[in-house]
Specification:
The protein has helices at 16-19, 63-72, 140-148, 160-169, 174-180; strands at 5-7, 10-12, 24-25, 35-41, 55-61, 80-90, 99-112, 120-125, 132-134. By secondary structure, the chain is an alpha+beta fold. The chain has a single domain, classed as Chalcone isomerase, CATH 3.50.70.20. The strands form 2 sheets. A 7-stranded antiparallel sheet has the order 3-9-8-7-6-5-4. A two-stranded antiparallel sheet has the order 1-2. Strand 1 and strand 2 form a beta hairpin. The N and C termini lie far apart (47 Å).
């Protein structure tokens, strides 16, 4: 089984011919030390889905990609975004209201690689520890991100610390601008 390797938290990619054959990606061991971008609760992209539980998520990006984005308003090649999807639990013995993050539901890895069709790949780890499995190009995540991502197929519209940078640098995607209209 061919694999993408992670060394020192950075992705090291196989030769271009092997990239198309990738089917797993190890979860970078230190991703929680990366730049935290945002968190959300019950964010759902389907108007018909009714979740049976609450979910909280956290988004992290590798520091090198974050630094480049701050300068250019675009994600460089080899960007790795990690999305932790966690169960939300109700108030416990101490707090009397609200929700807090609990166990990992799954973990999504979104990687930019200029050699891959569409330049981005999605991997999903079922528990945040096991290697992420490559989602096929036919998976809805690819078209949804392409059609609705505010910047470079990423949902930057949900990253309040970076959205203004992309807007100021004129790097918001045409599809996002068309969908949202003038701001």
């Amino acid at each position: 089984m061919r694999r993408l390797l992670c060394a020192l938290g950075l992705s090291v990619f196989l030769p271009a011919a092997a990239v198309q054959a990738q089917d797993t990606m190890p979860v970078p061991s230190n991703y929680r030390e990366w730049v935290f971008l945002t968190s959300s609760m019950d964010l759902n992209y389907s108007s018909t889905a009714t979740p049976s539980h609450h979910m909280l998520d956290n988004i992290f990006v590798n520091p090198e990609a974050h630094k480049a984005f701050l300068q250019t308003g675009t994600w460089p090649d080899k960007t790795i975004l990690i999305k932790e999807n966690r169960m939300a639990e109700s108030a416990g013995t101490l707090s009397k209201a609200g929700q807090f993050q609990a166990g990992m539901m799954n973990l999504e890895i979104h990687i930019k690689d200029e050699r891959v069709a569409g330049k981005w790949a999605f991997f999903v780890s079922p528990d945040g520890r096991a290697d992420g499995k490559l989602m096929p190009q036919s998976a809805s995540c690819y078209s949804c991100h392409q059609d609705h991502g505010a910047s470079d197929t990423t949902f930057l519209q949900f990253y309040p610390t970076l959205f203004g940078i992309a807007k100021d640098k004129g790097t918001l995607s045409a599809s996002y601008l068309k969908e949202t209209g003038p701001k």
